[in-house]
Amino acid sequence: MTQHTEDAAAEIGIMPEEAVFIGLKKVEHLSIDIFEYGENEYREFSIDNIREILPLNEKLITWINVVGIHDNEQVKEIGALFELHTLVVEDILNTRQRPKIDDFDDYIFVITKMLRYYNEEIVNEQVSIIFGQKFVLTFQEEKLDTFNHIRQRIRKKKGRIYRSGSDYLAYLLIDAIVENYVLITEKTGEKIEDMEDEISDSMSEGLTEKMTQLKRELNNLRRIIRPTSEFIIQINSLDSDLIEDETKPFFRDLLDISVRSSESVETCRDMLSDNLQIYNLDAANRFNEILKLLTVFSALFIPLSFLASVYGMNFDNMPELRGKYSYFILWGIMISIASVMIVYFKRRKWI
Fold it and tell me: Most buried of the four, 15, 115, 226, 274, by CB within 10 Å?
């Protein structure tokens, strides 16, 4: 049973609003990293329990990054302390959610999928982002370096991020994820282009397997990038006080990036489909060449086999068998027939 099927089976029987972790445990322990910044100051530290930083400092923007959502109880506790809806907590714990956005007035809840290459395969991690006044709460399955450049911006204590609110930080996080889609689709396109050379060079046995793997990856990308474009359209149409007018143009730019990624996926699908057609056509042509060669050999040996079978019969009254040069004459006839047939086949361009 595949992991996807196992996860689907795990969801059966779960009551609505029952928060249960569904997915793979990717880290040993849940960790909580904190960034607090504002007015050219910042603090960066880790805590063991979310209660340690409550209540939040209202003068600073607080980014709380939770890594390791397999811990049901701690995630539920965080949800309760931030007064998150039970369905939001349930969605955070269920790693099989599709990208989406929900507006809960006091906060905006976003589910995204972070993509990366692992052992030459595309894998995804669910990232949940919740942002309200003066805080951003993120939940990751495991700690990756996709957000490192955002951390570096905060550490420098300057730039737009210090002049903007939590909505701009949320934009940067989503932008980091969506920008990575472009890199993933470009690399996938390069793999498909490299495959064209393999098709023309040889009929590798592993080529069909590679094409199947790429097709599977493109289908997964499509399932992730399409709904991502949809929720970015939704976030641009929100009438929420949590998104400042100065930040709205940045969210609109996200739509361009997601559309470009979506178009790249469709282009890659078309390229892969063309490669598959070329591969099948090349395979058919090679098979026809082999079949033609076998047919020519069969046609050559039919009259030769006939002559050999005639003079291979055990009759006494066969005068040719007693001739002094019968053996050589028969060989001459057979070679002549074969030569005439080969010349004829070449003139007809059959060989």
Answer: 115
* Tally of structural domains, the chain: 2
Indicate whether 296 belongs to any domain.
Answer: no
Distance from C-alpha of 116 to C-alpha of 144, rounded to nearest angstrom: 10
Strand partners, 117: 122
Query: What is the spatial distance between Cα 90 and Cα 111, in angstroms, rounded to a whole number?
Result: 12
Is 170 within 8 Å of 129 (Cβ atoms)? Answer: yes
Tokens coding 214: 């790429």
177-219: per-residue pLDDT in tens? 999 998 898 888 888 888 777 776 655 567 778 888 888 889 8
List pLDDT tens digits, range 75-89: 999 999 999 999 999
> Distance between CA 320 and CA 326 in Å, rounded?
6
Q: Taking the mean position of all CA atoms in its chain, how far away is CA 42?
A: 37
Q: Is 114 helix (H, G, I), strand (E, B) or coil?
A: strand
Q: What is the DSSP string of 23-90?
A: S---SSS-EEEEEEEETTEEEEEEESSGGGGPSP-TTSEEEEEEE-TT-HHHHHHHHHHTT--HHHHH
Which of residues 265, 281, 297 is at a domain's end? 281
Mean pLDDT value across residues 116-136? 89
Mean pLDDT for the stretch of residues 264-291: 83
Give the integer Cα–Cα distance in Å for 137 and 20: 19
| 145 and 189 share one domain | yes
Question: What's residue 17's pLDDT?
Answer: 56
The rounded distance, in Å, linking the Cα atoms of 29 and 71 is 8
How many helices and strands in the chain, by DSSP H and E? 9, 7
Domain that holds residue 221: 3-281
CA distance 303 to 335: 11
DSSP string, 152-195: HHHHTT-SHHHHS-HHHHHHHHHHHHHHHHHHHHHHHHHHHHHH
